[in-house]
Amino acid sequence: MYRHQIHRTWLALRHRPQLRNWVYGSVLLSSLYLLYQFITPAGVRQSSVVEVHVEPEILPQSVWDNRAERVKKAFRHAYHGWEQYAAPHDELKPISNTYIDNFNGWGVTVFDGLDTMILMGLDHEYKRALKHVEDIEFNMEEGRFAPYFETVIRYLGGMLSAYAISPNKEPILLRKADELARKLDPVFNTLSGLPYYGVNPQTGATQGPDIGILAEIASLQLEYTYLAKATGKKEYFDRAQNVINIINRANYDETGGMMPIGWNTTDGTPHDQSVSAGAQADSAHEYLLKQYLLTAKRDQESLQLYIRTATHIITELMYISPTRHLLYVTDKMPSRTSHDAQVSHRFEHLSCFLPGLLALGVDQLPLDDVDFADAFDRDHPTQRAEWEKLRGFSLRDVHLWAAEGLAQTCWLTYADMPTGLGPDEMIFYTSMPEEGAGIGGGWFAPKTAGGGGTESNRPKTQTFGGTLWIDALRSWKRAGARGVPPGVGDKAPVVYSQEDRVRGAYGRDYALKKNEYLLRPETLESLYLLWKITGEPRWRERAWKIFESIEIHTKTTSGYASLRSVESTPGVKQDDMPRYFFAETLKYLYLTFIGDTPLPLDKWVLNTEAHPFPVIEWTPEERARFGVGY
Asked: Is 608 annotated as a binding residue?
C-alpha cells in the first residue's frame, strides 16, 4: 500500500525519541512565535531590538596594505586634478574642471594636503607643494578678510604639522608659519584678547561682531602652543594661554558646566545658553582634551573642563531613538517662543567626530580615577545632578559605550542609504508615528525632556520629547545589566526602496534634513580611532565600505565630487571637492588601513583638520621664560 512521505517520516520519528522531541519543540516554538507576531502591536515588536556585536572576517594585513594603496591612488588622482585645472587657487571644481577661491585664494588644497603627502610617501607631489608654500605672500586685497579660525586650522596647522613630521624639518615651513601668525595677530586686538572673526593680513584691519562663535574663538590652542615651542616665541604661548584661561574660568551656571556657542569678545564672557557638540562648537570641545594631551598631560584645567563637558553631553544631550534604539547626540537652541534653550533632536554629520574623541579619552585618561571635587563645582546643583546620574557606573565604561554607540549610529546613517554614503543632517523622531505606533517596554520608556524636531515632512507623532540615553542606561542597570547596554550593539541597516520613500517610511527612526554628502571626514575619523583603540575589525571594515562607496558614486575624471542626495543611485554629483578631503577624509582612511601607525596616539595629537603635532615637553628654561603654569 502507498504511504505518503509525511507518514513514513512520522513512523521514523517513533523510533528516534531525541529527534522526535527536537521536532516537537521546534513546532511549538514556531507556533508561539507566529502567535506573538499576530497579537502583538507592530510598534512593540519593533522596539524589541536585540543588541549584539557581529564581527566581520579577519583579513590578513596584506589585504589592508592593498587597500591603503587604493586610498593613496585616490589622493594622487584628486591632487593631480587640482594641479592640472585649479592651481594655484583654493579648490578644484571637479565636474567643470574650473576653480574656486573660497579660502583666501592662497591654495588651501596644498596646505591642507601637505602632511598627508608626507605620510603617504608622495615625494614628487610634496616637493611641488613646498615650492607653492615658498612662493605664497599671504596677501589680500583691501576690504577682504581672512577668516581667522579657518586660516589657523588649515594654513597654519598644515604648515606646522608638515614641519613636525617631515624627515628634514623643512625650515621654509616654520618660517612661513611664523610669517602667517604675525600677519594674523591683529585679530587679538579685542578688550578680552579673544580673536575677532577675520583680519586683512596686509592692512591689519579686522572684522567681526562683538559676539563670537565658540569654535572660532577657542580652537587655536594646539597650533599656537606648538608654534611657541617650535619658534621659541613667548607671544604665541601667551595667545593660546589667554584663551585657555578665559574659557576655563568662565561662569557656566546657565549651561550646566558646558561652554555655550555665543561669547562676548569684549569682556570674554558666555553670551547665551545654546550648547552643541556639532556645528559652531565641535573643535572647541575637541581641543579641551587635546590640549591636555599635547602638554604631556599637564594642563589640568583643560582636562577638568573636558570632563565636565563630556559629562554634560552624556547626561543631557545624548538620546536614544524609539524603535532601533540608535544613540545620537543633539543640541539645545533657543526656540521661537522661548529664550530658554530647547532640545532640537537634530543630529549632524559634524557631530560624528565625538565618538572618536570619547574613545581617545578612554584610551589616554584614567577615567575611573576622576575626582568629583577636582572636576566639578559641588555647590552647583546641575553639575552635582549630572555627576550623580553616573554614580555606580565605571566612567570609562560609560565613555566607551557612548563612543561605540554613537559610532554605530554614524555608520548606520551611511549604511541606511542606497549610495552607502551619509547625509549631512538628520532629525530623529522622539516617538513612533500614530499609525502602528507603540513605544514598547523594557528599559525603553519615554521621558519628557524637550521638543521634537522641526522638519516639515516629519510624521504626526505623539511626542514625548525623546528618551535620554542616561535614563535608559540606568534602567538597564537596575534591571540587572543583562546583555549589551542600550544603544551600543550592532543593528542591521534599513534601506528604503523608492516605494518606501513615496509612501512615507519611518523605520530608520530619523528623517533627512540635509541629504547631501559633502565628502566629510568625521565618521571616518571615529572609525579610525575606534579601530586603533579597540582593535575590533568591524570599524576597519566599515571604513573600507565607505571608501568603496566614495569610489563608486563620487569619482570624476579629475577628482571626487560631493553628492546632491545620498538617496538616489547613481549619485547626482555637485561641482565641489572640499579641501578637507585631502587633509582628513583620505588621511583617516589611509591611517585606518596601513599596518604600523606612524602617529602613535600617545605621542601625536591631531588638530581638528587632522594635522598632527608632537606631544610637548617643556624644558626648565622654556617653562621659566614662557611662564608655563602647569
From this structure: yes
